[in-house]
Amino acid sequence: MDNPIENTNNDQNITTKQKFEGKVLKTTLQGAIVDIGSKIPAFLHVSQVVDPENKDKVVTNLDEILKVDQVINVWVKRVLKDHYELTMREPLMYEWRELAPEMSVKGTIVRLETFGAFVEIGAERPGLVHVSELSHNFVRLPSEVVKVGDEVDVKILEVNRRKKQIKLSMKALQETPEEILAEVTPSRRKGKGKQEVIEEVQEEIIPDPTFMEIAMRKAMDRAEQRRPEIASRIKKQKNRDSEADDIFERTLTNKLSNAGDMDD
Questions:
Q1: Angle at 176 between CA 170 and CA 182, to 5 degrees
Q2: Cα angle vertex 2, ends 5, 129, to 5°?
Q3: What are phi and psi of 260, to 5 degrees?
Q4: Are 90 and 122 in contact (CB under 8 A)?
Q5: Which structural domains are found in the chain, ordered by start?
Q6: 8 pLDDT band (50/70/90 cuts)?
């Protein structure tokens, strides 16, 4: 999160998540008083102090990390009536309560799976763009559309705070084929008949076939390829049936003939 370092003497401009370069004025067992240029005190609690050499370390001895007159980067965690609460932990761009459906945000692709792409939007967890939400066209794999590191615009579809899930969409911010058709300029239509224009635009916006369409086409192609083989099998079967009928008829005729001879 690239917030600029700021100093201000106007407390009305100080808000949560704002970044400051402050000077440590005093340290205690509970934390430190930090000068951020405000009229009221700014307090950094020991639980919000970060060891620059080990950010995951729990700080218990403040004097090992902070010294009086030391300049540090801090963010405003809470704005209270008589003081500001600070933190050395860079805050998230979006808290869960700040996320809502229909919001449009920017993000970066951080992981690809067969079912979709995970996008870092500055929240506690990356959001997921399902493969069906990557484009209006058919997408078999996310890697056909995006790669890790791509910066993308996405719309929030659903936020589930209990499951810590964020569902996103890229195609919700993309033009639909119908919108592209509506944008065809009159200059391109000039001198052309209505049918010519329709055919020209349709050629440009024909969407990729869906999975079911592809499967159907493959099945039809296989059936077309096997048609001569099937016809040959049917013909052979008919020939065998005809031969069997002839044999049966000759056998029956011979038996009837032999029976007549015996009666004589």
A1: 150
A2: 160
A3: -65, -35
A4: no
A5: 11-87 (2.40.50.140), 96-173 (2.40.50.140)
A6: very low
Give the separation between CA 73 and CA 50, rounded to whole angstroms.
Answer: 10
**Residue predicted with more confidence, 189 or 231:** 231
User: CA 74: distance to chain centroid?
Assistant: 33
Residues 170-187 as b or e (16 or more Cβ within 10 Å = b) = bbbeeeeeeeeeeeeeee
Residue-wise burial string across 214-238, b where 16 or more C-beta atoms lie within 10 A, e elsewhere: eeeeeeeeeeeeeeeeeeeeeeeee
Q: What does the CA dihedral 186, 190, 192, 196 come to, rounded to 10 degrees?
A: -20
In 3-state terms the chain splits into helix, strand, coil percentages (rounded to 5) of: 35, 25, 40
Q: Note if the pTM is more than 0.70.
A: no
pLDDT tens digits for range 184-202: 655 555 555 555 655 555 5
Q: Which residue has the tokens 């079912």?
A: 115
**Tokens describing residue 4:** 């600029």
> 32-80 pLDDT, tens per residue?
999 999 989 999 999 999 988 888 888 888 888 899 999 999 999 999 9
pLDDT at 183: 66
Give the H/E segment covering residue 169: strand 165-169
